[in-house]
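Lecture notes, unit on protein representations.

Consider one protein chain, 180 amino acids long.
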Amino acid sequence: MLPSGRLSGYCKPCWCLIQKAWLVGSPDRIQHARERHRRWELMHPEKKREYDRRYYRRHHKEILVRASGRRPSPEKQLEYTRRYRMTHRDLTRSFVRNRRARLRGAVGCHSGQDIQRLLWFQSGLCQYCGQRLERYTVDHLVPLIHGGSNWPSNLCLACLSCNSRKGSKTAVEFFSLLDA
Protein backbone atom coordinates (compact mmCIF):
# COMPACT_ATOMS: atom_id res chain seq x y z
CA MET A 1 0.00 0.00 0.00
CA LEU A 2 1.24 3.47 -0.85
CA PRO A 3 1.57 6.23 1.79
CA SER A 4 -1.46 7.94 0.28
CA GLY A 5 -3.59 4.91 1.21
CA ARG A 6 -4.01 3.76 -2.36
CA LEU A 7 -3.15 0.33 -3.67
CA SER A 8 -1.47 1.79 -6.74
CA GLY A 9 -0.09 5.11 -7.93
CA TYR A 10 -3.00 5.64 -10.38
CA CYS A 11 -6.43 7.15 -9.96
CA LYS A 12 -9.33 4.70 -10.21
CA PRO A 13 -10.37 5.49 -13.84
CA CYS A 14 -6.78 5.21 -15.06
CA TRP A 15 -6.23 1.99 -13.13
CA CYS A 16 -9.41 0.50 -14.69
CA LEU A 17 -8.14 1.35 -18.17
CA ILE A 18 -4.76 -0.25 -17.43
CA GLN A 19 -6.45 -3.42 -16.15
CA LYS A 20 -8.72 -3.65 -19.20
CA ALA A 21 -5.74 -3.22 -21.54
CA TRP A 22 -3.89 -5.97 -19.67
CA LEU A 23 -6.89 -8.35 -19.85
CA VAL A 24 -7.39 -7.80 -23.58
CA GLY A 25 -3.78 -8.87 -24.14
CA SER A 26 -4.58 -12.56 -23.67
CA PRO A 27 -7.75 -14.70 -23.65
CA ASP A 28 -6.21 -16.76 -20.81
CA ARG A 29 -6.09 -13.65 -18.65
CA ILE A 30 -9.80 -12.99 -19.27
CA GLN A 31 -10.67 -16.58 -18.35
CA HIS A 32 -8.53 -16.37 -15.23
CA ALA A 33 -10.20 -13.10 -14.19
CA ARG A 34 -13.67 -14.58 -14.69
CA GLU A 35 -12.83 -17.63 -12.60
CA ARG A 36 -11.40 -15.44 -9.86
CA HIS A 37 -14.55 -13.30 -9.92
CA ARG A 38 -16.79 -16.39 -9.69
CA ARG A 39 -14.81 -17.68 -6.73
CA TRP A 40 -15.16 -14.31 -4.98
CA GLU A 41 -18.95 -14.35 -5.60
CA LEU A 42 -19.21 -17.84 -4.11
CA MET A 43 -17.15 -16.89 -1.06
CA HIS A 44 -19.02 -13.60 -0.45
CA PRO A 45 -22.71 -14.16 -1.32
CA GLU A 46 -23.97 -11.42 1.02
CA LYS A 47 -21.62 -8.82 -0.50
CA LYS A 48 -22.65 -9.92 -4.01
CA ARG A 49 -26.34 -9.61 -3.09
CA GLU A 50 -25.79 -6.14 -1.64
CA TYR A 51 -23.80 -5.09 -4.73
CA ASP A 52 -26.60 -6.34 -7.01
CA ARG A 53 -29.19 -4.42 -4.98
CA ARG A 54 -27.19 -1.18 -5.14
CA TYR A 55 -26.59 -1.64 -8.86
CA TYR A 56 -30.30 -2.22 -9.49
CA ARG A 57 -31.28 0.86 -7.44
CA ARG A 58 -28.90 3.03 -9.46
CA HIS A 59 -29.71 1.55 -12.89
CA HIS A 60 -33.26 0.21 -12.62
CA LYS A 61 -34.59 2.43 -15.42
CA GLU A 62 -31.98 1.23 -17.91
CA ILE A 63 -32.53 -2.39 -16.83
CA LEU A 64 -36.29 -2.09 -17.40
CA VAL A 65 -35.78 -0.50 -20.82
CA ARG A 66 -33.40 -3.30 -21.87
CA ALA A 67 -35.74 -5.98 -20.55
CA SER A 68 -38.78 -4.50 -22.28
CA GLY A 69 -36.94 -4.57 -25.59
CA ARG A 70 -36.14 -8.25 -25.25
CA ARG A 71 -39.44 -9.67 -24.04
CA PRO A 72 -42.72 -8.47 -25.45
CA SER A 73 -45.68 -8.26 -23.15
CA PRO A 74 -47.91 -11.35 -23.09
CA GLU A 75 -50.58 -9.45 -25.04
CA LYS A 76 -48.10 -8.50 -27.78
CA GLN A 77 -46.73 -12.04 -27.92
CA LEU A 78 -50.25 -13.45 -28.21
CA GLU A 79 -51.08 -10.99 -31.00
CA TYR A 80 -47.86 -11.86 -32.85
CA THR A 81 -48.60 -15.59 -32.54
CA ARG A 82 -52.17 -15.12 -33.77
CA ARG A 83 -51.04 -13.09 -36.81
CA TYR A 84 -48.31 -15.63 -37.63
CA ARG A 85 -50.77 -18.52 -37.46
CA MET A 86 -53.24 -16.66 -39.70
CA THR A 87 -50.63 -15.88 -42.37
CA HIS A 88 -48.93 -19.31 -42.18
CA ARG A 89 -52.07 -21.42 -41.77
CA ASP A 90 -50.88 -24.48 -43.75
CA LEU A 91 -47.54 -24.56 -41.97
CA THR A 92 -49.17 -24.31 -38.54
CA ARG A 93 -51.75 -26.98 -39.29
CA SER A 94 -49.20 -29.42 -40.71
CA PHE A 95 -47.01 -28.85 -37.64
CA VAL A 96 -49.95 -29.73 -35.36
CA ARG A 97 -50.90 -32.80 -37.43
CA ASN A 98 -47.30 -34.05 -37.47
CA ARG A 99 -47.02 -33.61 -33.71
CA ARG A 100 -50.26 -35.51 -33.06
CA ALA A 101 -49.13 -38.32 -35.35
CA ARG A 102 -45.75 -38.54 -33.58
CA LEU A 103 -47.50 -38.76 -30.21
CA ARG A 104 -49.52 -41.69 -31.57
CA GLY A 105 -46.33 -43.42 -32.69
CA ALA A 106 -46.81 -42.99 -36.45
CA VAL A 107 -43.88 -42.69 -38.82
CA GLY A 108 -43.58 -40.00 -41.45
CA CYS A 109 -44.40 -36.33 -41.75
CA HIS A 110 -45.81 -33.91 -44.29
CA SER A 111 -45.70 -30.20 -45.00
CA GLY A 112 -48.16 -27.53 -46.01
CA GLN A 113 -46.87 -27.86 -49.58
CA ASP A 114 -47.79 -31.55 -49.57
CA ILE A 115 -51.35 -30.62 -48.62
CA GLN A 116 -51.49 -28.00 -51.40
CA ARG A 117 -50.30 -30.67 -53.87
CA LEU A 118 -53.07 -32.99 -52.65
CA LEU A 119 -55.64 -30.23 -53.13
CA TRP A 120 -54.41 -29.71 -56.70
CA PHE A 121 -54.23 -33.47 -57.40
CA GLN A 122 -57.80 -33.99 -56.15
CA SER A 123 -58.95 -30.94 -58.18
CA GLY A 124 -60.38 -29.39 -55.03
CA LEU A 125 -62.87 -32.25 -54.59
CA CYS A 126 -63.57 -34.49 -51.59
CA GLN A 127 -61.84 -37.88 -51.90
CA TYR A 128 -64.99 -39.74 -50.83
CA CYS A 129 -68.12 -37.89 -52.02
CA GLY A 130 -66.63 -35.82 -54.85
CA GLN A 131 -68.14 -32.49 -53.74
CA ARG A 132 -66.19 -29.24 -54.07
CA LEU A 133 -64.16 -28.56 -50.92
CA GLU A 134 -64.93 -25.17 -49.38
CA ARG A 135 -63.22 -26.26 -46.17
CA TYR A 136 -61.28 -29.47 -46.02
CA THR A 137 -59.90 -31.88 -43.46
CA VAL A 138 -56.81 -34.01 -43.90
CA ASP A 139 -57.62 -37.70 -43.60
CA HIS A 140 -55.40 -40.79 -43.33
CA LEU A 141 -56.39 -43.49 -45.82
CA VAL A 142 -55.13 -46.10 -43.35
CA PRO A 143 -55.83 -44.54 -39.92
CA LEU A 144 -52.98 -44.05 -37.48
CA ILE A 145 -54.77 -46.29 -35.01
CA HIS A 146 -54.52 -49.16 -37.53
CA GLY A 147 -50.79 -48.58 -38.07
CA GLY A 148 -51.04 -46.11 -40.94
CA SER A 149 -48.22 -43.69 -41.63
CA ASN A 150 -48.21 -39.92 -41.70
CA TRP A 151 -46.49 -39.75 -45.11
CA PRO A 152 -48.25 -37.79 -47.88
CA SER A 153 -48.94 -41.07 -49.72
CA ASN A 154 -51.33 -42.06 -46.89
CA LEU A 155 -53.17 -38.73 -46.85
CA CYS A 156 -56.19 -37.40 -48.69
CA LEU A 157 -58.46 -34.40 -48.36
CA ALA A 158 -62.09 -34.86 -47.38
CA CYS A 159 -65.04 -32.72 -46.43
CA LEU A 160 -65.83 -32.55 -42.73
CA SER A 161 -68.95 -34.72 -42.97
CA CYS A 162 -67.18 -37.56 -44.84
CA ASN A 163 -64.18 -37.49 -42.52
CA SER A 164 -66.45 -37.57 -39.46
CA ARG A 165 -68.47 -40.50 -40.85
CA LYS A 166 -65.32 -42.39 -41.82
CA GLY A 167 -63.91 -42.24 -38.29
CA SER A 168 -61.26 -44.93 -37.77
CA LYS A 169 -62.22 -47.05 -40.79
CA THR A 170 -59.81 -47.56 -43.67
CA ALA A 171 -60.65 -45.98 -47.02
CA VAL A 172 -61.65 -49.40 -48.46
CA GLU A 173 -64.02 -50.09 -45.55
CA PHE A 174 -65.56 -46.64 -45.88
CA PHE A 175 -66.06 -46.96 -49.66
CA SER A 176 -67.78 -50.31 -49.15
CA LEU A 177 -70.04 -48.66 -46.56
CA LEU A 178 -70.91 -45.86 -49.03
CA ASP A 179 -71.75 -48.38 -51.79
CA ALA A 180 -74.08 -50.39 -49.52
